[in-house]
Amino acid sequence: MMTVLRWLDILLFLLLAMILQGQSVSNVTVVKLSCENMINPQGIETLQPRLSWRLQSDLRNVHQSAYRILVSDDPKKLNTNTGNIWDSKRLNTDQSLWINYNGIALKPAKYYYWKIMVWDVSGKPSSWSETSRWQMGLLHPENWSNAKWIGYDELDESKRIVPGIESPADKPQYKNLITGKHILPLIRKKFSLGKTVSRATAFISGLGHYELYINGTKIGDRFIAPGWTNYNKYSLYNTFDVTRQIMKGDNAIGIMLGNGFYNIPNDRYRKLITAFGNPTTIVKLLVEYTDGTTAEVISDDSWKVHPGPVTYSSIFGGEDYDSNLEQKDWSMPSFNDAPWKKASVVKPPTNKLVAESDHPVKIMKSIPVESIIKLSDTSYLYDFGQNASGIIRLKVKGKKGQTLRLYPGELIDKNKKANQRASGGPYYFSYTLKGDNMEEWEPRFTYYGFRYVEVIDAIPDTASNKVLPAIVDMQLLHTHNSSPRIGNFSNSSDHFNKTYNLIDWAVRSNLQSVVTDCPHREKLGWLEQTYLMGESIHYNYDIYGLYKKLVTDMSGDQTAAGLVPDITPEYVQFCCGFRDSPEWGSAGVILPWLIYKWYGDTTVMRQAWPMMKKYVQYLGTKANDHILSHGLGDWYDLGPKFPGVAQLTPLPLTATAIYYYDIALLSRMAVILNNRTEADQLNILGDSVKTAFNKKFFNPQTKVYSTGSQTAISMPLCVGLVDEKNRKDVFATLLRSIDTSGKALTAGDVGFHFVVQALSDGGGSQVLYEMNARNDVPGYGFQLKKGATALTESWAALEEVSNNHLMLGHIMEWFYNGLAGIRQSENSTAYKQIEIKPQPVEGITAAKASFESPFGIISSDWKKNGTEFSIAVTIPPNTTAVIYLPATASSVITEMGKPLTASREVKSLGFKDGKAMLQVGSGKYHFVVK
Asked: Is the dihedral of CA 492, 498, 501, 506 positive or negative?
């Protein structure tokens, strides 16, 4: 009996200990721990990293009431629930995003480990989360341990071309200027380690781009790393854990360098040329031994260099590779580098090195060839069936010294040859064989947008002619920013599903280190699409890191006068509206706001405040009686002329409307940042601009703005320029304007975003559906009918312009926040308060979307069957939602098959505008309306 009682005492003691340590039977678990919005990141450069997490539970109405974070420099200490670096203790709050680290001062290059437990609303603790980690970057210049920038040689200062030169082939003084003929080197360093290695970390930047090898192994899976920037302002470096590649004894580091935007050759196709310098790299390898001591290997003039097999590298022109110039085992310690020359220590190309915090560009998909067409005895056309950004992967057999060329194209001409007229030509890849039985190759430092590849001087392996190199296999490797996909959409309309894919291919192809307009001809970061297409991109991909980088780029490129140029990084200074268009530069104000709304982060707007304020002041200096009159306006709207500068809407209307929107947003951000005085001043300025705008453009009798175009009416509705007393009438004029066009699209790059928003917010989704569910006039269906596989630059899918372009995909946001109805409430950030407000239309019987918000998955899945409407909804923990159902007071509404009155988790908020409003907490719900 005593033994039984003793064991009961022990069990009770253990149970009490487990509870005190947070090990309870709570249904809530903590998942997806992130630091600075990244999972287990490396290269963190803030001394107060911000930590976030999500809750997971099968229950409804799950909320966090408190949390406790432990941070340690040793994961074993966390196993005993010891946070020797920081123990936050229990903090009573539901906040689970952007929690500032507040412990002992963090050290450069060091790893830190953390875990968390939370308490739910009933006070029950969760179990401890799994352990997560982050690694600090090199916080100060001295942390690079005097590492040097090295290369094959240094560019003569007199040959430096910064800023770049646009279209040099069209300018006689630059037409014959030779640039980009420098050596593209292999760089290596052999070193020896005398102790057993515990951990090794490589810090590296290579400009324009690099590939890193250690002991014969390529490190990481990045493509054209690091991301590109204005190298006069700052450059990016990457951090790699290379513990598995480093060993006791002899080791070797190898680096290949390519040009990128850092140095653009003045031959083949080039939108512009630059020459910041010749390719260069800086490296620090930090080795930690098991005995607690450390060693370092840094780049300096003891490293060796040699010409590499990449003989031509151009971000605009392609890449040439001669496999006969390969140095076998060149990144192995056993390689004899005696014939190589010493590396040149070069002038630092940038004053600021910053850890790259965005998701890198990677090879994200491999697309096999669909068909091969013979063009001649020496040329063939490979069709991959999909227009996408990327490169090729080649498997080929042939004789030593044979060279084949591959011309990618998104279209083909009447002779079925690659058509590069609208995408930039000549652009090609070339490969010279070394004569091995099977050779494999893919370009390293360039990419293009294409569907087809025209092969010159090679044949398929199945062809009978064996004189030329034989291609055994070729694939299209789709490269783009690896930001995680967080959204999916489908519906009962095959047309709209194809439209979704059409836009998504263009989005992916143009998410790179910046948001490009096209993946071939320009590859430049045109800014208007970043916010006009922002919702459309954001519902599909986690773009926090990318958009944060863009804000940094814009701040760096802002002129002394306050101008935010139309492109960033600003490699070349374009003329007129192509450098200074308010609808483009306003991204400098709108992006920090969107980041705050989407992710709940105030630091970006705080850091960008000087840039935003200065830009609004700049626009004020350009205004005449508060009216702006410059820029490109509603670019590529559908008028009687070939598309370009706005045809249907006056430039002053769009320019002034976005100016007013900037002021309004800046005022709201001033309040959030506790700048009340500035907010009041901005409100006064905004009122003056609004008065001037309506005086110039609004006809109070007809309720029409300006020309009455779709854009002219939609923009004022969306940015707050329409007085409340006139909103209903102005919306009616928009519907009439659309009817007048025969429900055809006329708005362009700037305007169609606002058309979509105005119709969706104003109850005009049926009209929006009817405008876009057709293929007889220019639009999405028209493009699909012409065979487009990615969104095109023009509504009419013209061959004369890009056929993989980002800017006109605005219907995507309606798929999510209109048709499926996933959006957040007006005053919410990071989707803390959610609205599920589907907009069923005649012609669609079902729609389904899911979206991974900062708090977790939000989903909406509805169906119509006769008079019955059903919807399944998922709301993530730590949030609330209002669900809008098409119903009146006489409708019969059930939830999970039971009357609403039987559900304690659903609160009725009444009926309005033909919709029942139901308030719910987290969980899964299923409603049926009859």
From this structure: negative
Check whether the bond before 650 is cis (ω within 30° of 0).
no
Q: What is the pLDDT of residues 834-888, one digit of tens each?
A: 999 999 999 999 999 999 999 999 999 999 999 999 999 999 999 999 999 999 9
Rounded distance between C-alpha atoms, residue 398 and residue 439, angstroms = 9
Q: Is 558 helix (H, G, I), strand (E, B) or coil?
A: coil
- Right CATH for 833-929 from 2.60.420.10, 1.10.260.40, 1.10.8.640, 3.30.750.24: 2.60.420.10
pTM as predicted: 0.96
Question: What is the rounded CA–CA span in Å between residue 387 and residue 476?
Answer: 10
2-136 CATH, one of 3.30.470.10, 2.60.40.10, 3.30.70.240, 3.40.50.280:
2.60.40.10
Dihedrals phi, psi of 519, to nearest 5 degrees: -90, 20
Do the domains 141-357 and 362-481 sit in the same CATH topology, yes or no? yes
Nearest to 223 by CA among 268, 189, 258: 258
The CA-based diameter of the chain, rounded to the nearest angstrom, is 104
Distance CA 868, CA 284 (A): 65
For 402-424, write each residue's pLDDT tens digit.
Answer: 999 999 999 999 999 999 999 99
Dist CA 846 CA 862 (whole Å): 6
Share of the chain residues as helix, strand and coil, in percent rounded to the nearest 5: 25, 30, 40
Rounded distance between C-alpha atoms, residue 114 and residue 705, angstroms: 57
Closest-CA residue to 647 (of 746, 741, 793) = 746
All residues at 6 or more sequence positions from 595 whose CB lies less than 8 Å from its CB, including other chains: 544, 547, 548, 551, 601, 604, 605
Is residue 307 helix, strand or coil? strand
* One-letter amino acid for residue 260 of the chain: G
Return the amino acid letter for 174. Answer: Y
Burial category of 177 from C-beta neighbours within 10 Å (exposed 0-12, middle 13-18, buried 19 and up) = middle
